């Protein structure tokens, strides 16, 4: 009886080792790749009041699962926004900015539901990076949502930038103080 019990125990252990230690099937991780859409032209000069500049390196990127075509991350517009204060007597304090996409009929192309990031963020209100004195320049990275509908050729006609800023009087004055040493 002990021999039978020992044989069953050894058999059970061997079966458990074979089943439990078998290599598990590896599931291949999905490969995600960036699908880049060119924006033509890539750079555009701009002028808004006392601000001039350029929206440069514009492109739209969508992240897609290779093979299945499943969208991993919806399209985003990225660019570099360069601004310069051309005034000689006014500083500019940025409050905010917004992007709109304009279609062929002059109507705004809306984003899909649950997507609403169209804001250009400037630094906090008391930051020196947010204020441009006369002649100064600033550069901002822009990353905002882009409507899937606008990916179709000939659908997008313009990108509208809206800036909110406060101009304020700027003066640079010099004062000479009459002083002497020792008396």
How would you describe what is shown here?
The protein is mostly beta strands and 183 residues long. The protein has a single domain, classed as Immunoglobulin-like (Sandwich). The chain has 1 helix and 10 strands. It has one helix at residues 2-20, and strands at 32-38, 44-48, 51-65, 71-85, 90-103, 108-109, 119-120, 131-132, 137-145, 156-169. Strand 3 and strand 4 form a beta hairpin. The longest helix has 19 residues, at 2-20. The mean pLDDT is 84.
Main features:
183 residues, mainly beta, Immunoglobulin-like, five-stranded antiparallel beta sheet, 1 helix, 10% helix, elongated
Flag low-confidence runs: none
| CATH classification class | Mainly Beta
Q: What's the CATH topology label?
A: Immunoglobulin-like
Order of helix and strand elements from N to C terminus? HEEEEEEEEEE
Count every beta strand, where a strand is a DSSP E run of 2 or more residues: 10
Biggest sheet record? 5 strands, antiparallel
Approximate helicity band = 10-25%
Overall pLDDT confidence: 84
Count of the separate structural domains: 1
Helix run count: 1
Q: Hey, roughly how much beta strand do the residues contain? A: over 45%
Per CATH, the architecture is: Sandwich
Query: Measured on Cα atoms, how large is the radius of gyration?
Result: 31 Å
Q: How would you sum up the global shape?
A: elongated
Q: Look at the helices and sheets and give the structural class.
A: mainly beta
The N- to C-terminal Cα distance equals 122 Å
């Amino acid at each position: 009886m002990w021999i039978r019990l020992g044989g069953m125990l050894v058999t059970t252990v061997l079966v458990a080792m074979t089943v439990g230690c078998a290599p598990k099937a590896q599931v291949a991780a999905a490969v995600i790749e960036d699908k880049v859409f060119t924006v033509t032209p890539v750079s555009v000069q701009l002028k808004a009041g006392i601000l001039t500049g350029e929206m440069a390196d514009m492109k739209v990127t969508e992240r897609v699962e290779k093979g299945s075509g499943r969208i991993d991350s919806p399209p985003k517009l990225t660019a570099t926004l360069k601004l310069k204060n051309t005034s000689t007597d006014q500083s500019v304090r940025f409050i905010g900015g917004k992007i709109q996409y304009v279609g062929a009929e002059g109507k705004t192309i809306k984003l899909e539901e649950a997507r609403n990031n169209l804001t250009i963020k400037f630094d906090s209100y008391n930051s020196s990076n947010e204020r441009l004195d006369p002649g100064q320049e600033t550069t901002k990275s822009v990353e905002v949502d882009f409507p899937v509908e606008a990916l179709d050729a000939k659908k997008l006609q313009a990108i509208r930038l809206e800036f909110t800023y406060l101009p304020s009087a700027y003066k640079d004055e010099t004062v000479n103080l009459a002083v002497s040493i020792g008396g």
